[in-house]
Amino acid sequence: MIPAIQFQNHAITLGKYRIAACPRALPSGRFAAQVSVASGRGSASTDRVICFTDDFATHEAAASFSMAQGLDWVQGTSPKH
Question: What pTM value is reported for the model?
Answer without folding.
Answer: 0.78
